[in-house]
Amino acid sequence: MKAMLFSAGLGTRLKEITREIPKALVEINGQTLLQRNLNYLAQWGVDEVIINVHHFADKIEAHLNEIELPIKTSISDERLTLLETGGGLKKATHFFSGETQPIILMNVDILTNLKLKDMLMMHAVKDPLATLAVLHRDTSRYLLFDEKMKLSGWENTATGEVKQTRGFGNILVPYAFSGVHIISPQLLNMLQEWPDKFSLTDLYLELSEDHKIMGFLHDGDKWVDVGKPESMEVAENLFN
Description:
There is one protein chain. By secondary structure, this protein is an alpha/beta fold. The chain has one domain (about 1-240): Alpha-Beta Complex (Spore Coat Polysaccharide Biosynthesis Protein SpsA, Chain A), CATH 3.90.550.10. About 25% of the residues lie in helices and about 30% in strands. The strands form 3 sheets. Strands 1, 4, 5, 6, 8, 9, 10, 11, 12 and 13 form a 10-stranded mixed sheet that branches. Strands 2-3 form a two-stranded antiparallel sheet. A two-stranded antiparallel ribbon has the order 7-14. It is globular, with a radius of gyration of 17 Å.
């Protein structure tokens, strides 16, 4: 099974730390986020992963040469232009050529003990184009789902902006995206119609009008976004 780790971001929320290193190399209890998430993916059966790089790309490559790798790794080089999640996946499409199994996508600055086996099982049963891990938690941007957990819109509570793509007239429930997704290989073909730089959230919202994009609720699991300085202490308490 193959996966992609999104590691190209600038990590601006980490301020002083990411002036010297990329966010992928931030350490939690002596292990980098990159190393922890490679181990996490390997635990659930991933044997090949592609990692996109931009900010301090050379340091990520050096780190991969220094540590013991639990799975085979490849690099998708975005040094010249940061492509966001959708553009990053589009550039890495060749890595998944001929793939028939579901593909796991994950942000490198997320730490979780989410049981990917359960999420993969639901993806297999529901057979959507994508399954998005979500939680009940406070944020300013929410994905909106109908009673069957089908993606139906998006809301920014800070600006009041709402986009509803389906399920008109239904009561929609807001959930926060966890930064872990599973996509079906056929979704890769749809990327070619999109520009070289775009967000996967925008893609999912557009596709949800005519296709099934599902949410997988994993309340109760450990989860932390280590993209913020105040979250580092939380992560160190949750993940040894």
